[in-house]
Amino acid sequence: MKKCIILANGKTPAKNVIKYLQNIGYTALLCADGGADSAKKSGFVPDYIIGDFDSVKKETLRYFKNKSDIIRIKSQNDTDVEKCMKFAIKKNYKEVMLLGAVGDRLDHSFCNLGIVLKFFHKIKVRIIYDRSILTPYAGNVELITKKGEIVSLYGINDKTKITSHGLKYPLNKTSLPFGKKESTSNVALRDSVKLSIEGGIIFVIREFNLLKKHGLI
User: Fold this and answer.
1) What domains are defined for the chain?
2) Residue 90 has pLDDT above 90, yes or no
């Protein structure tokens, strides 16, 4: 299964995060515009740099000129991250790990969360930010967990109903609409948590280093 990393122009992730993902099969690195500056700073060579190039430094593009495929897309109808998503789908990647999606621009951070939903039915997208990893889910899901692990769940609207088995604070056809209700810092009671999600998509946020330690990514 083809997997890739998309590096956006938010907070630069730790080098060991990118190295770890490359070692577990996320073999291609796509940089969304200014994400190429982060790649250069961290010593990584992107396979592709994609965007309208309104934020990446000119010296960065010159540096990667003969090292990476540089693809300029002038369209203003989508963000640079979306341009990368569409490119990844066209290249038949099945999974994306989105890094640098959160930073000092709240509008960009919020938009990137929406992109996870927008592309849910086309490609599997997860976000890693500092200690957290966000994964979208729908339908029936079994999470391999560690007893005592913090598992936070967030719905989008009133129509999405969640039933859980194995969480300290159980959900029974519960909706978690944004701005009304959430299940922050719930706790896994055992090594498996089952979720039944009806009528939509939810976000589940877990601790990245714990999942990494136990090979659960």
Assistant:
1) 3-130 (3.40.50.10240), 135-213 (3.40.50.10240)
2) yes
